[in-house]
Backbone:
């Protein structure tokens, strides 16, 4: 991991991953993960970077990951980009995203929507001459069929109308399988429960591997306690099963885990010791 002022970067073999932050908010643990207040102390000391100094709040980051492989420029999730929803966006995000995309928005080949909640799709579109259009003019946007169907049914359709419907109108939204392979290095991984068609992202170049969680977890506390669902998990039982499976798959493997809502340092490794699971911040930076 290396960092400029506000961009964190990791290198996985020939793949470069950059975190582009929109904002970090704090919120009471119990307001997002109802069972978490009594679990926090048992997750010390490794949980410390991901909560407030007084332990009462978790720090929730909203950021995109730019994943650049030898063949493909990918943006994983596009944050909030609006100010009329429960967490407001940050207008400066566009400049930071441009900084992480040396070829500009035109260079983006693929936008992965891990799911269609408002804090993951907000910068999908841009208003030009009063009309919402795809922000990345040459990109295909990827979503699963289950996710698209579920989000169409939402009562509050503001995010869908602003950030998804214009993609459908422009014929740039591709419905893909939850295990869709993007190129030799990047593949989607089904991780339902938070939403019906939720996907994570796996990156591999030989032995060097990383996993972008999406919202299968909102805090690394949930690796240690997979049953600790958030209030926004659509199917808490399925979300728990998914978290248990992912912990089984990734614990003690060396796969670098990048949390979609984890504040800096954002990355770490899942470790298991007997019945205890922890999330250990990577102390050795990967090469810039
Ligand atoms: Zn989210």
Residues:
């Amino acid at each position: 991991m290396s960092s400029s002022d506000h961009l964190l970067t990791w290198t996985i073999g020939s793949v470069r991953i950059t975190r582009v932050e929109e904002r970090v908010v704090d919120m009471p643990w119990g307001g997002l993960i109802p069972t978490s207040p009594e679990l926090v102390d048992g997750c010390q000391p490794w949980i410390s970077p991901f909560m407030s100094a007084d332990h009462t709040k978790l720090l929730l980051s909203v950021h995109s990951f730019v994943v650049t492989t030898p063949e493909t420029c990918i943006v994983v999730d596009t944050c909030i980009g609006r100010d009329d929803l429960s967490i407001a966006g940050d207008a400066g995000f566009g400049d930071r995203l441009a900084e992480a995309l040396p070829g500009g928005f035109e260079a983006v080949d693929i936008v992965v929507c891990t799911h269609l909640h408002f804090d993951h799709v907000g910068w999908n579109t841009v208003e030009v001459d009063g009309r919402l259009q795809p922000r990345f003019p040459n990109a295909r946007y990827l979503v699963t069929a289950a996710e698209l169907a579920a989000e169409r049914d939402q009562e509050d359709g503001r995010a869908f109308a602003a950030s998804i419907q214009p993609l459908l109108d422009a014929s740039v939204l591709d419905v893909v399988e939850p295990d869709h392979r993007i190129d030799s290095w990047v593949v989607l991984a089904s991780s339902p429960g938070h939403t019906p068609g939720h996907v994570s992202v796996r990156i591999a170049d030989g032995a060097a591997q990383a996993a972008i969680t999406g919202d299968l977890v909102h805090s690394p506390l949930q690796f240690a306690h997979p049953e600790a669902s958030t209030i926004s998990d659509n199917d808490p039982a399925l979300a728990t099963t998914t978290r248990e499976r992912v912990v089984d798959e990734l614990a003690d493997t060396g796969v670098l885990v990048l949390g979609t809502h984890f504040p800096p340092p954002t990355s770490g490794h899942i470790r298991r010791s007997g019945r205890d699971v922890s999330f250990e911040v990577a102390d050795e930076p990967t090469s810039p």
